[in-house]
Amino acid sequence: MTLAYWCVLIALFLPYLSTITAKAVSGGFSPRHNHDPRALLDNLSGLGRRANNAQLNSFEVTPAFAAAVIIAHLAGGAEQALLDQLALAFVLSRIAYFICYVADWAALRSLVWFVGMGLIVSLFIVAA
């Protein structure tokens, strides 16, 4: 299995870093919140809300990244090392995105988001 495929697996689990953060700062790991955890997450503020928003964005972008990696592999137009580097850069951009979101660095977060989207587009372009 290629590094790019491993990056897809990592990207699938990255949203849960945000989930854990949101719940940890809000006391969401108590048994009473386990009956309806989404209600808890919907009513957060501050750091917990930002972490939950990062989670939602991660769930939104991950399918596009996974599709880009799979399509780039199937198209076969790029060196594997380049695909691996782009995929790893995407994962690192998502970690940076999470950090920017919870730290409330809005402008930098938006810039990092654009970098991540650019990396997804790059996977398509290099495979063409």
From TrEMBL:
Extract the InterPro entries matched here. Answer: MAPEG-like_dom_sf, Membr-assoc_MAPEG
GO annotation, cellular component aspect:
membrane
Where does the UniProt annotation locate this protein? Membrane
* Keywords attached to this entry: Membrane, Transmembrane, Transmembrane helix
Primary location class: membrane
- Where is the chain membrane-spanning? 86-103, 110-127
Recorded hits in Pfam families, A to Z, give: MAPEG
List the SUPFAM superfamilies hit by this protein, alphabetically: MAPEG domain-like (SSF161084)
Q: What is the recorded name of this protein?
A: MAPEG family protein
Tell me the organism: Pseudomonas xionganensis
